[in-house]
Amino acid sequence: MINLMIVDDEETTRSSLEELVPWSEWGIDNVRSAENGLAALKLAEHYSPSILLTDIRMPKMNGIELSKKIRELFPDCMIIFLSGFSDKDYLKSAIQLSAVDYLEKPIDLEELKALFQKIVPRLLEATNEKANQTLLLNSFNENIHLLRQEIILELILNKTELSDLINQYGTDAIPLHTEGNVLVICTVLNWKASITNDEKSLIKHTILKTLSHCNPFLNYRFIAGFVNDNYLIIAANDEKSDPHSLKTKAFGDSLLELLRPASNLYSSSIGYSISSNQSIDFPDLYKSSLETVKQQFYYGVNQIFHPNTFPVLSFEIDKTLYSQFRKLLRNSSADELIILVKHLTTDIAKAYDPDTNKIRNIYFKFLRILFEVTMQWSIVDSGDINENIPVWQESEARTTLQELSDFLITNIEIILLKPDSKENTIAKIGEIKKFILSHCTSNQLSIQSIAEHTHLSQTYLCAYFKKSTGRTINEHITELRIEKAKEYLKDRNMKLYDITTSIGLTDTNYFSTLFKKYTGSTPSEFREKHLYDKKTL
């Protein structure tokens, strides 16, 4: 939209220009006028001129002063001077202000028309170019987190000079100093087992987008990106990139706070690298931050960790513990088994072995022995192949040493301690059934989500339910869904696809097959039979 502002202290000139010239035919959308420079500035508070057509000599504020102020307010405004005097000083000022042209009074309409036919296309072209630049800038800002994701990988995987990347991508994409200290901050996200890959992708996208628009974030210069689903990597610098400084600690606290709203989906911990005054060291700093964040295995989650300065030991298990564990297990000595596991956990914690995979493997071996022996007793056979959960999968889901120890102990207790009283069993099964009933219409219901709610391992949740009810969990869920489907089928207006999604399933063909398996008829046959029976009543 092109706005014209006419400023002239002569009312006749002003009204003639405003009313008699066919501005709309010349591409002008709006025309406003003012009797002097001060009045024009007042008008400009709510009317943004694209073109200023102003007399030079006026009371209160002349055209030159007005043009200077309009240029400050609207740098892209085109200026045309009017005057009845051929004054060289005025012409010089017009040149300094980059005026489009200079018209002498009385104004020649054809000359005015020719001038506007020249400047309106230029103005439209400039407006379109500016709009395109704005769109490009908005698009760049909107997607800058995606670019920084790639830059992070380039920084930490290759020994690339930071200055080379800044020259390639620009300072808007990489707001880091090339001089001063740098460090890497690694945030590990420990996802809940029930979180899907699509949910992870959405959350990661939201985190990166939020971080990209936190600029400056506690006066920190940084960029962020993910390495696989679990590690949020931040490359940062400031005048004193010291992991132990108050400013750096405040950054970590704010980062944990930023991640807290989704804490029902994951737990998190932050690990700082050592610092370096060489930006080419980013790959080594990245490895340093990964080692630091491993401290969560021993100290717990939702904490900030700094590079370890005390000596660590390599923990080597006494291999006779495995045979001792197996012997105690066969003697059904639960208390002694639990004591063994607790002592082992204490010894491992003291050693603080950084090879956490080796430690995980120790607990996995104990779990495997436990399951091998108890399978021979037919204790954990759920009777449903769809409910068999790999032991390693459940153990891998444990984030800390204490969680691994508790997981092993819980399984020992479930198998070897005295069975629950009848009242406790009824209450526990009631809790499980209540959770299933309230979530059976959701396609997110799974053995994982039930296990998380009841604080049982998936393997023994299935065994416990089967032993107590005589049915598997999957059978129970399916029966509930079939009963709900029967109610929905009584409504002729409800489509089969809507019924399928309303009971927590996604595939209509699978639903039809399942329904026939449990009822002996297809959904359509069931609906027709119900409607027929209703008519005959």
Notes on the protein architecture:
With 537 residues, this protein is an alpha/beta fold. Helix 11 (320-330) packs parallel to helix 13, helix 13 (356-376) runs parallel beside helix 15 and helix 19 (473-489) crosses helix 21. It has helices at residues 11-20, 37-43, 63-73, 88-96, 109-157, 162-169, 197-212, 246-259, 282-293, 296-299, 320-330, 334-351, 356-376, 391-396, 401-416, 422-439, 447-454, 458-469, 473-489, 496-502, 508-519, 523-536, and strands at 3-7, 30-34, 51-55, 78-83, 101-104, 181-191, 221-227, 231-238, 266-272, 304-305. The chain is built from 22 helices and ten strands. The strands form two sheets. The protein has a five-stranded parallel sheet with strand order 2-1-3-4-5, with helices on both faces. The chain has a five-stranded mixed sheet with strand order 7-8-6-9-10, sandwiched between helices. The protein folds into four domains: 3-107, 3-Layer(aba) Sandwich (Rossmann fold); 145-305, Reverse transcriptase/Diguanylate cyclase domain (Alpha-Beta Plaits); 320-416; 422-536, Homeodomain-like (Arc Repressor Mutant, subunit A). Strand 4 (78-83), helix 4 (88-96) and strand 5 (101-104) form a beta-alpha-beta unit. This is Response regulator. It comes from Paenibacillus psychroresistens. It holds the Pfam family HTH_18.
